[in-house]
């Protein structure tokens, strides 16, 4: 019984601090769409957007590595804290992302990021929508920057960038760029994109 106490206490603390953080693979389809991103100065998370492409937060700056292999920077926008990487690691097509068509205030979402280098989930609710971003009432931990926000159907709704943004923030809420901002950054037709595999 004593042997079980320490692991139990560890996961209890994580549950309280992380407001629902989980190392489980549920929902499976969204956990597999996020990767651990390392740079020369920091670490974070990234969302797989195609066979060799990852979108992440620009404040995880420096030389980037995914699965131990260096990445090329295809596009960077420091103002909107976005960076688009091409990896030397090839992802399986089954991990390609699907995009949501709508997002509503009060909607249940999952933020998927990397905790100690492994995918983890935090559940929350959309508390406020703006033109290019939205706020989620979920307590986020270090390493989640650049992680994905997904709806209950496992569809991508935004990229988590932290507790602040260029125009300010609301205390206690996470901030994510919505698909409109992401598509503008990637030069994608917002009306047509559903499954993204950039060439």
Structure in words:
It is a single chain. This protein has a domain at 28-95: Trypsin-like serine proteases (Thrombin, subunit H, Beta Barrel). Helices cover 15% and strands 37% of the residues. It has 199 residues and is mainly beta. The strands form 2 sheets. A 7-stranded antiparallel sheet has the order 5-4-1-2-3-7-6, covered by helices on one side. It starts with a helix and ends in a 13-residue tail after the last helix. The chain has 3 helices and 13 strands, in the order ααβββββββββββββα. The longest helix is centred in the N-terminal third of the chain and has 17 residues, at 2-18. Residues 1-25, 164-170 and 195-199 have low confidence and may be disordered.
In a nutshell, what does this entry contain?
This protein has a domain of 68 residues: Thrombin, subunit H (Beta Barrel), CATH 2.40.10. 15% of the residues lie in helices and 37% in strands. It contains 3 helices and 13 strands; from the N terminus they run ααβββββββββββββα.
